[in-house]
Description:
Number of domains: 2
Helix content: under 10%
Amino acid sequence: MIRQYLRSVILLGTALLSNSHSVTADISADRFSSAIRFESKIFEIPLAGNAFFTHKATHAKETISSAGLTNWSESSTVTSIYFRTSKGGNFSLKLRAKTAEGQQSKIRVSVGEKSEEIELVSPRFEDMSVGEFRVAEAGYVKVSVQGLNTSGNSYGEISHLLISGEALADGVLYSDDPNYYYWARRGPSCHMNYNVSDISDATYYYNEITIPKGEDKIGSYFMAIGFGQGYFGIQVNSERERRILFSVWSPFHTDDPKTIPDDQKIVLNKKGTDVHAGEFGNEGSGGQSYLRYNWKAGITYRFLLNGTPDGNGHTDYSAWFFNPDTQQWQIVASFKRPKTNTYLTSFHSFLENFSPNQGYLERQVEFKNQWVYNGEWNKITSARFTVDNTYHAKQRIDAVGGVTPNGYFLKNGGFFNEVVTPGSTFSFNNKNNAPNIDFAKLP
């Protein structure tokens, strides 16, 4: 679930961090500052990278693809499209839509409390005027579309929204790059990079995480311990399945694990009871392990990672999870990474959504009580917030991080309007005691 380019991003965590705070961003920069500044500019927003089914029955057949909204036959289905204005004000809205030959349909288009009904009658794509709407301030806008009645078996198809007006005079932010449509629908990922610049030869990383109730959406991956060669955390795979996941990248860069030479394959040293171990690909490749475990929102979970060179040009990485049900540390897995001779580096945490259909939902996680061991325990006192390429490319910017009374937090998805400048650093006075762990007794 972690994108391949994350490996370059997480190296930022080794930089020396300051104690300065920055919780606002000049969102007029980059795209907004380069936008054409007059109200007659028309922006064509493709549903392909900006639309979601915010209500859809399990039997419904609607799809969102490169063509936009298709197979639209259920009146209960609500399709919502999102864009971010640069200021408050009025804007006009059109739909590029069509119906099947010989059919006509009536649909409802809603923005906030205001809605308009329009009829679709053309079998070819036409730009249909919806009306004038108003937003109070800069931020994300949701436009929702729902079918009312049709003379046939389909309400038609919609490929684009077309918007213009005062609220867009300084530009508008939406996913406009086909290479990013998939990633934009997943939403931007974000990281909290812990300051370990003064700690050398680290052999253990320790972290605790809590998912607030209601923030454990399907498709979420909450990484407790990221490091230079892999990642360790928990995820929500479905309504019935949750996992504890630990993976280590191969030193051979590929998305296909079958192409990894034998001398660069990740080797499984051991794994815990009921742990699945194998390989992963598509976003880098390497060794993967996971334990199906029904972790719960609102409960704090503890994670421990060891990374130690074996003296033969390899490094062993081992991950433990403290099970609150048994009050015991249990091994998830231990992997040997070839052609690697290093202690632990690049301590960080991470938040992502790996399900494009869930990208309109918000998720949040709190990280607390971080420690690093190199012969003695060292507590973490500052961290740096960073984001992924989806955010940097200004396809979406609903990702933030900061501090709470208990530690650090990350939040993404949901098209919220809060902005935290990527690169912002945060300090936290951790008053907890160092972990009391007998390493010799770990399974």
